[in-house]
Amino acid sequence: MKSGPTILSAAAIGLIALSPLAAHAHPMLVRSNPAAGEKAKEPIQISLWFSEKIEPVFNKIEVVDGVGAHFEDGKPTVDASDRALLHVRVKQLPAGTYRVRWRVSAADSHKMEGSFSFQVAR
Ligand SMILES: [Cu+2]
After folding, report:
1. pTM score, two decimals?
2. 24: CA distance to ligand 1 center in Å?
3. Strand, helix or coil at 10?
4. Distance from C-alpha of 118 to C-alpha of 35, rounded to nearest angstrom
5. Distance, CA 114 to ligand 1 centroid (Å)?
6. Domains, the chain, ranges and CATH?
7. What is the CA(83)–ligand 1 centre distance, in A?
8. How far is the CA of 19 from the centre of ligand 1 (A)?
9. What is the residue-level pLDDT of the chain in tens, covering all 122 positions?
């Protein structure tokens, strides 16, 4: 039983050593188009601006209506000239309320996620 506490304390030291990383900046959603709560006309894509660059892998934007049908059209892409901008095309959106669920990869490979809703009015 002597090695148990040794391993634990090594792990604890590892956690302490890593904790400054947890404080480092991660991409936060700064704004979007459509914006949260907006009554949009006929959006053809969803654009999400983050507080810092995001990695071009493992990103996700889903656009779902009240019964869970998906309206995103393909995979999201990081903008070629602004790596803090992620967008995805959407299918034609009937009037209604939609939820955008996003997930992005930070430079340190941590995943950030969130969601917001907007409406389409005609
Ligand atoms: Cu991180």
Report:
1. 0.79
2. 6
3. helix
4. 7
5. 16
6. 25-120 (2.60.40.1220)
7. 17
8. 10
9. 444 445 545 455 454 444 445 557 899 999 999 999 999 998 999 999 999 999 999 999 999 999 999 999 999 999 999 999 999 999 999 999 999 999 999 988 899 999 999 999 97
